[in-house]
Amino acid sequence: MDGSSRRARPRLRAATLLVPLALIVASCGDDDDESAATTPAPPATEAPATSASAAETTAAGGGTGEPGASGEPGSACTGSGDGSGESILIGSIQTDSSPAGQFPEITTGAEACFEAINATGGIGGRPIEFRKCNDSADPVQGESCARDLIDAGAIAVLGGICFSCFSAPVVDVLGQAGVPYVGGLPVLPPEYEQENFLAITNAGGSSSLYANAAYIMQAAEEQGIEANVVEVNANVGEINPTLEERIKLLGGNYVARIDFDPASSDLASVAQQAIDEDPNFISVQTDGPNTVKIVTSLRQQGYEGGIVILGTAADPASIEGMGDASEGLYVATFFENLGGGSTPDALKFQADMQAIDADPLKTLAGTGYAAAFVTAEALSRVDGEITTDSFRAALLALEDVVPLFDGQLSASNANEDFPRTFYFTAYGNVIEDGELVSTGAKFNFYTGEPVE
């Protein structure tokens, strides 16, 4: 596939950007609908192995996940048996609601998957008991959740946006008890290593910043210009590797980082500071409401360069709120258009969400669903007694799980910056006429290589 065939549109007004969910710590982000990806650039670093595309490889019992495919619902989150066996306890520690942010849709997505499994017989006839615990962004409450789930005999605990986990007390407590923490949206530092911390990531921390830089550099290459990048960040501190480091490594010019208080009422001045640096790409990393204000201010003050926003800030309300200023903004996520797409996996996800009266257009629901799906897939492959140890071994052995992800799921695909992290294929979206639409081919977010 040559570069021209991968190019979805001649007009590329902005770069694509992966959702940096470690940055959602400050953003309390909204949700978006997702689709497919922009033109990949050659990798700047040695690439880890990537799997075949979904069209070539399919997990046992899974759908194709091929972009643009349609047909019967896929079989992700589907059980087997009569449901009469002993239940398997899976816990969840999430910040479903708190003064710092509310992300209940992650838990809802996981619940939709487990309910669908139970409705079709469980894991080899054993139903999933899904026990949810809201940490309320309180470390004491988070640790209490962890200890209660340990005492109850949980095989694993699903994470996500868990504010009490940031300094790792929850994960450490679980790790000391040998209970794997399976994170949908890991927000722990990338240098954190814990044998029982198993991040199933569709974004977050270092991984998102690799993708952010790759997308910006791809757009600059396509336009035949040098990337002069300004980062507008909701004052969430340093993440290693920083966007600055990655842009420089890929040969771009990182001009400046402008931190701001997301509670500030004067975001027009933040936009002006970014413009004053004379960039041709601005990366806006904050929540939906503040994204509306900053993007609108950038355009009102005459900025015509590329603007990159978080996928979680590209919800319909934010797009509508930005009006014409949203035109040409780029976002990127790992999932296909689960909420409104027509692939088998998308149809299955939509049906499972609707079965519990939940909104399938909530992007973060897709991440919870994904973590639950991978957890269930590992449980179904345990040979013998299901224990925390046998589950962990089965999860780390997964190398062919393709439905929903179209990318390799393997701890062997990690490098030193991403211990125990699974990598998925990225998809890009652009806002056109007030809607998120696909920008083209899918690609490996870490290497930038296309997935044929």
Question: Which helices and strands appear, and what pairs or packs with what?
Answer:
Blueprint (H helix, E strand, L loop, with lengths): L2 H4 L17 H4 L60 E7 L9 H16 L8 E7 L4 H14 L3 E4 L9 H8 L4 E3 L13 E4 L4 H19 L4 E6 L9 H7 L3 E7 L8 H9 L4 E5 L2 H13 L5 E4 L6 H7 L7 E4 L10 H12 L7 H18 L7 H10 L23 E2 L2 E8 L2 E4 L4 E2 L8
Parallel strand pairs: 1-2, 1-3, 3-4, 4-5, 5-11, 6-7, 6-8, 8-9
Antiparallel strand pairs: 10-12, 12-13, 12-14
Averaged pLDDT: 75
How many domains is the backbone divided into?
A: 2
Strand content is 5-15%
CATH homologous superfamily of the largest domain - what is it?
A: Response regulator
Low-confidence stretches: 1-70
What does the largest sheet look like? 6 strands, parallel
The assigned CATH architecture of the largest domain is 3-Layer(aba) Sandwich
Question: What percent of residues adopt helix (DSSP H or I)?
Answer: 25-40%
CATH class of the largest domain: Alpha Beta
Radius of gyration: 21 Å
| Number of helical regions | 13
Short description:
It is built from 13 helices and 14 strands. By secondary structure, it is of the alpha/beta class. It folds into two domains: 194 residues, Response regulator (Rossmann fold, 3-Layer(aba) Sandwich); 202 residues, Rossmann fold (3-Layer(aba) Sandwich), CATH 3.40.50.
